[in-house]
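can u pls check wat happens w/ iron/sulfur cluster
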Amino acid sequence: MERFYLRCLWVSDLSTQSWCEQQMVYGKELPGFQSAEKAAVLGAGASIHLARELELHDLVNIHTSTKEDAWAVKLLNILSMVPILQSGGTIREFPVFGEIEGVFLVGVIDELHYTSKGELELAELKTRKRPMMPLEAQKEKDRFQVSLYKCIFDAMVKGQVTSASLVHHMKLSPELLLGSQVQKHAHQGGFTVKSFGDLLELAILSLTLSDLPVIDALKIEYSHQETDAVLGTEMVVFEENRVREKLRHHLGYWTGLREPQGVDVKEAWKCRMCDYATICEWRKSGGRRASTLEQPAQKMSR
Ligand code: SF4
């Protein structure tokens, strides 16, 4: 994490890592290397997500000039969505964060709603370029992603995510005054706050005192990018021990305990569709460790 100047990890990076760790590392080191086709697919996916988000709420532009302001916007989003969820409504793009297994994780849940049985269900939308369900390996990556969201969300509503932990990991200054646009937006939402710390305490209190349940069900919906037709849905069985074990393995790389690994021989088919196949050290050496950790940080292209 120090090598990449990271204070937290994104859940989406961890799920990419579960596809191929070496590929995820190349993605960080060589961000411009991604094929134009893949970038276009991701861009189209983002547009569909935005369209769904706009079905439920408007977007407001707020100028932020400090990292505290940027976090304040996330906290304001949480504060505006908690009451909707409390009253049985549906929310989209809910920010989640918290320390899990010693590392600070952040992410955004696509959708949370209640089922007809009254269970709190997380729904993750995955768009596909081709009109067919993904292979098992892709589904496994997506299952890991939503399972991590559940770990973080549950910790948030159980009061296990503290303001001290956020301040410590993200190196934030609670006493810093919020920017005028952020303060104005907070005021419009009914919150009289001046400093980042005021808002943080309010958001943490709102999460822990709101009696929100933990997530009961995890659903992934696959849809076709071009037509928006639903290709199928997957209900994910949450296996906490397995998820945490996998997370600890992934964090071994991020905390510098081990070198990055590429795919197993039985998953070598992934290399055929990989943007980095021509330069991949892991692949060239037939599955030995790559040497990226030995490169000096200043040589990285960021
Ligand atoms: S070529 Fe294979 S091992 Fe190398 S990064 Fe790509 S998928 Fe991973």
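Residues 1-34+259-302 form one domain.
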